[in-house]
Amino acid sequence: MSFENILVEQRGAVTLITLNRPQALNALNSLVLEDLIAAFAAFEADPSQRCAVLTGAGEKAFAAGADIKEMADKPAADFYSQDFFSRWTSHLVKTTRKPWIAAVNGFALGGGCELAMMADFIIAADTARFGQPEIKLGVAPGMGGSQRLTRAVGKAKAMEMCLTGRMMGAEEAERSGLVARVVPLANLLDEALKTAAEIAAMPPLAAIANKEMVNAAFETTLEQGVLLERRIFQVLTATEDKAEGMAAFIEKRPGVWQGK
Ligand code: CAA
């Protein structure tokens, strides 16, 4: 599969997807979205692929936001009738059950920050800068930023960032819980791919289940979340990978996973 606006390659069991419009700081237009939807669908459908990494081409930006030039002259009725931005969440978040990591290599602004926050976690370069500057354009976040940023860093920082457009650097982002880890820019891709390979080597059903459980923490009450966790745990005990994992532990050898 080849694309015009993204690059996709398989590195063993890891799919590496690169936003590839560096001349526009990887701004996210409709063509990028369609490419990403197809690439994520292919990743999800391919049993040989167990984890994905999404990054941006060039050293300057992961993505500097939704494409302002595409939105500037678009009539309001079109945004509404097309339910503009809805397909990002429906395809990249809801239908992607396998884990994926955002490797943020520079600016992650507006839709870029929101796209990174759709990932299961973010590994950031020390040069990364996160922000929701939409207010400066007379609008507001539209791809989940007001919700996911607030859940990640809390009301005070999210509100300040949305109201002022202030960018948050990598160190502050790690301290605030927005990113899992910060690494030097030169090591970013290697670190993200290494982490993805580690996840890809885990029992695949358990990986999907762990992702589902952690995500449920943002959607439900503690009691319902703990119940869901217990039920998923119980379901996993019926898998061949559970039998193998526990036998391998007792026999002091690495497990070999079937995804069954
Ligand atoms: N959309 C379209 N083009 C963009 C873009 C965007 N979001 N961000 C950058 N570009 C383009 C610039 O227009 C420029 O193109 P030209 O060379 O053709 O003029 C090129 O990328 C390089 O950008 P700059 O010259 O501006 O680079 P800089 O180093 O001076 O500044 C920056 C970098 C601070 C990131 C600046 O580009 C910037 O502020 N970008 C816009 C950030 C923004 O407002 N993002 C939110 C968009 S709205 C949104 O995302 C809505 C939502 O919630 C989904």
Tag the structure with descriptive keywords.
260 residues, six-stranded mixed sheet, Enoyl-CoA_hydra/iso, binds acetoacetyl-coenzyme A, EC 4.2.1.17, four-stranded mixed sheet, single chain, enoyl-CoA hydratase activity, alpha/beta, 46% helix, ClpP/crotonase-like_dom_sf, fatty acid metabolism
General description of the model:
The protein is an alpha/beta fold. It has twelve helices and ten strands. It has helices at 30-45, 68-71, 76-81, 86-94, 111-118, 145-153, 155-164, 170-175, 188-200, 204-216, 222-236, 240-250; strands at 6-11, 14-19, 51-56, 61-63, 100-104, 107-109, 121-125, 129-131, 168-169, 181-183. It has a six-stranded mixed beta sheet with strand order 1-2-3-5-7-10, sandwiched between helices. Helix 1 (30-45) runs parallel beside helix 4, helix 6 (145-153) crosses helix 7 and helix 10 (204-216) runs antiparallel to helix 11. The model has no long low-confidence stretch (mean pLDDT 97). The structure holds acetoacetyl-coenzyme A.
**Form type:** globular
Helix percent reads 40-55%
Please indicate the percent range of residues in DSSP E strands (runs of 2 or more).
Answer: 15-25%
Largest sheet: 6 strands, mixed
Overall pLDDT metric: 97
Radius of gyration, in angstroms, nearest whole number: 19 Å
Protein name: enoyl-CoA hydratase
Enzyme class: lyase
EC number: 4.2.1.17
Keywords: Fatty acid metabolism, Lipid metabolism, Lyase
Entry summary:
The chain is an alpha/beta fold. Helix content is 46%, strand content 16%. The chain is globular, with a radius of gyration of 19 Å.
